[in-house]
Amino acid sequence: MTTIEMTVDGVRYQDEVEPRLLLVHYLRDRLGLGGTPIGCDTSNCGACTVQVDGVSAKSCTMLTVQADGSEIITIQGLAKDGRLHAVQQAFHDEHALQCGYCTPGMIMAAVDLLRENPDPSDQEIRDGLEGNLCRCTGYQNIVRAVHSAATTEARS
Amino acid sequence: MIPASFEYRRPSTVDEAVQALVGGDAKVLAGGQSLLPLLRLRLAFPDLLVDVGRVESMRGVRDDGEHLVIGAVTTHHGVVTDPLIAQHCPLLAQATSTVADPAVRHRGTFGGALSHADPAGDLPAVALALDAEFEIAGPTGRRTVAASEFFVDYLQTAVGAGEVLVSVRVPKLGAGWASHYEKFHRVAQAWAIVGVAAIVRRDGDSIAEARIGLTNMGSTPLRASATESALAGAALHDGGVTAATDRASEGTDPPSDLGGAADYRRHLVKVLTRRAVLAAAGS
Ligand SMILES: Cc1cc2nc3c(=O)[nH]c(=O)nc-3n(C[C@H](O)[C@H](O)[C@H](O)COP(=O)(O)OP(=O)(O)OC[C@H]3O[C@@H](n4cnc5c(N)ncnc54)[C@H](O)[C@@H]3O)c2cc1C
Ligand code: FES
Ligand code: FES
Questions:
Q1: Helix (H) or strand (E) holding A146
Q2: What is the ipTM of this complex?
Q3: CB atoms within 10 A of CB B4
Q4: Over the stretch B66-77, which tens digit does the pLDDT of each residue have?
Q5: Is it true that domain A2-77 has CATH number 2.170.120.20?
Q6: Nearest residue in chain A measured CA to CA from B81
Q7: Are A35 and A77 in contact (CB under 8 A)?
Q8: Same domain, B20 and B143
Q9: Which of A86, B109, B227, B276 could form a disulfide with B30 if both were Cys (CB 3.0 to 4.6 A apart)?
């Protein structure tokens, strides 16, 4: 067992974990943060994407012990004071989901993209979301939602 | 799947890392972007992981006169955004920006990709074309290995058990040199079916000198030596380049897999080498 400390969605945790515990399992099974799903066993789908120290990472491809001392933000930490994050709101408004399984990861990747590039082109959005697979939407509405969130964020 | 159990150490210096690796079935962990998928599929089950991710002396890029020295745990994202690399070795930034996706590039490291030595990985062929030098630390001290000796076989490098890749030296590309990485894949985020790294020095309307590295054309990255020799003095426009790049498959032994059959890759490598050389030469 290894002692770790981290902040998740603004709450500080200290825990004893097995080194083999994946970050996504820690978030889901130990902290009860089921908003971050697991979609694959090969690090390809991006459903599990969270923010680690300000940048996106696939939480299924990280050991909890590697996140020791880090600040994690999950999909459940994006809304502020009961108001959805601009990207969450845009996914809702633009119907950028069907079954919703990829949505948490898609939104976390989109937030990361807009942080680096607040006004992306269609191609830049597609490149930025390259690590996230959606089995339902065909991506058109997802790209539209990211554009719409970029516009909202530019206005606010 | 959940990985099999292992112990975990997180050294903060290279010496501590080398000490931690002594004995048992230990493995180095860097970004984990290749190793963790293997552990999860239980294709690897080491007793101990030595996490070098926080060895600060192994991170970042520094100017060393004629060379850049890139710390092994510099992330792909760090390579893509580094100003020294942009100025002196843009080929590396361009090739690295084609690796995986943004989230994987935030955690995966330059040294990890080279140590993993996947023949479909983009960076080994680039390191080979650049004549990079690898600094390796082990129980008996440090040694430097040339790129031509580093890639030994499929997923095997000169880094032995108990050793750590510390940094990689790449030459600055001087005035007159230009480069391009041409990667062929069919879907987003995919590995290269074939990739070609070209570095050329142009002299008027012809190529003076060229170095070509090939991705996924054998069990290790390869140099297209026949093409390199034929390119010296080749005219850019009267078919000289094509005659030279048509020899790019000589001496290769590409795999046949779901990405393509071996003879398809032998054809593809000629097309991509021509594209890479012409793009590098700016025509
Ligand atoms: C979805 C996905 C897509 C990908 N697509 C591509 C792609 O298109 N092109 C491409 O080139 N790569 C691709 N990769 C692989 C990526 O480049 C990895 O980041 C890289 O191969 C491994 O780097 P790492 O730091 O994560 O190493 P790790 O996974 O930590 O380690 C990999 C191996 O190298 C050894 N190792 C690591 N660092 C050292 C060191 N300093 N000294 C000694 N041994 C060391 C480890 O023991 C292990 O055997 C992809 C990965 C994923 C998950
Ligand atoms: S669960 Fe698929 S990438 Fe993490
Ligand atoms: S909405 Fe179903 S996987 Fe994307």
A1: helix A140-155
A2: 0.97
A3: 13
A4: 999 999 999 999
A5: no
A6: A116
A7: no
A8: yes
A9: B109
The encoded tokens of residue A148 equal 């719409």
B109 and B57 inside one domain: yes
- Nearest atom, ligand 2, residue A48 CA: 4
Question: Is A41 in the B-facing interface, judged by CB distances under 8 Å?
Answer: yes
Q: Distance between CA B179 and CA A145 in Å, rounded? A: 37
Q: Does A19 reach chain B within 8 Å, measured CB to CB?
A: yes
Q: At residue B175, does pLDDT exceed 90?
A: no
A149, A129 contact by CB (below 8 A): no
Show the tokens assigned to B73. Answer: 């745990």
Among chain B residues, the shortest Cα distance to A48 is held by B103
Q: Is B265:B193 a contact under the CB 8 Å cutoff?
A: yes
Tell me which amino acid residue B78 is: G
> Distance between CA atoms of B33 and B31, rounded to whole angstroms?
6
User: Each residue of B206-222: pLDDT tens digit?
Assistant: 999 999 999 999 999 99
What does the domain layout of chain A look like in residue ranges? 2-77, 86-155
pTM of whole model > 0.95? yes
Query: Structural domain of residue B155, as residue ranges?
Result: 1-170
HSE-CB at B152 with a 13 A cutoff on CA atoms is 9
Q: Is the CB of B191 under 6 A from ligand 1?
A: yes
The topology under which CATH files domain A86-155 is DNA polymerase; domain 1 (1.10.150)
What is the count of structural domains for chain B? 2
